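Hey, I was hoping to borrow your eyes for a little while. No rush at all, and the record is pasted right below.
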Amino acid sequence: MTAPIIRRRSVGGASKPAVPAGQPERGAPLLAGLEWSPSFVAFLVYVFVITTYRVPVGTAAMSVALLALPLEPRTLRLPPFVLCLAALLGWAFIGWSTSEYPTLVWDHLVDFSKIVAVVFVAVNVLTTRARLRFFLLAYLAFFAFYPVRGALFNYFLYGGTMGGRAVWNYSYSNPNDLAGMCLLFVALAAGALVTERTRWIRLCALAGVIVLPFLIVLTQSRGAFVALLAFGAIALKDQWRRGRMLLLTAAAIVAVLVAAPDSVWRRLGTLKEVARQDERVQVADEGSAEQRLEIWKVARAMIADQPMTGVGLGAYPEAHYIYAQRPEFNPTARGKRDTHSTYLNILAEMGLPGLILFGLVVALPLMKAEQVRRRIKATHPARAQQLRYFVLGMIGYLVAGIWGSYGALVPTYLYLSLVFVAALVLQERELPLRRSLRLGSRGRARSAATATATATPIVRRTVR
């Protein structure tokens, strides 16, 4: 008689699944699993420079990051959205060849080529979850300690505002641009809040989720305010059952209502008149809405004259100065103006092909993120929620872009790179788990079949 087989269990219980190399566990230290490289360090330095404007070494840092890219352990990748961005640059070169402002356009082409280089480096150095996590938290810290702190200090301590609207220095001296960038960082902070388990990081992320919307309100950017409302409504749609989340949201709303001065609400209260294009809005809003509408008329005339190649990248203010002299336009539109619209700006400077290419540059990372989010929401719900916030942040930014010109800003394309990289990293991390689950289910099925086949003859012998 054969002794029965005894299956021994481990005394310590089931073993924990191994964490892939370079992937931090939840609640892990900030540097856990982080792999350093010359390109990664240079990229961090570059982003610090363009965010804080503290040291003038941005070009040098990006040059080092590009030259050191071949040292990265992974094969260099060139995703479709980067190719579309390069095609957009190529189309801008064609516009330069036909532009009446070749010197001005050339300078902007050089700047835009740097943006393409930044995106190419970003998708090739942010290749692991550890690197992406560290970069996102560092990027949030850079923005919090410089533009956010500076704008709040200017507003409440130094009185350094633009007509009562919160601003800072450099590229943050335009309140609409500052508000648009804050939208992106609200999404990054919300993503960190749902994925991080380290207490101090969660507290910092929570502070960002509260302070950044408050700063958007202080900028009095009506476009960004509308986008913020849309972002908040969609983001909280699936969170209404969570009492703690609703309590935090209510507390944040009350804080904004109490702390924001009356001038903010007077300006934001003109949204209804702006939507109706009421002529009386000039009195309530110091004429800014009427002036914007007149500027848009000038932009439309420019687009109608040069619908394919436009006036050239960065040449809109010069061309506007000439167009606005025509008698059919109101004198309030005269001067070297901005379009106050991302889409009209791209159409006027690079024509319809330029706008199509820009749409592809934006759509491809968002589509990738949404595809990965749906695939991993069952296995990695927190990471899926993070991707959802990232996508919503970009959608809100695009809504604000109706009233602000964001097509030439580095954060626009850097954020798109982060959306794409986050989706790619999560997809690569999730695939081994899905394979292991499939193999495990197949193994259990085989074991059950083997056990059944083995047990059947034993039962027959017993019956006999």
Remarks:
- Residues 282-438 form one domain.
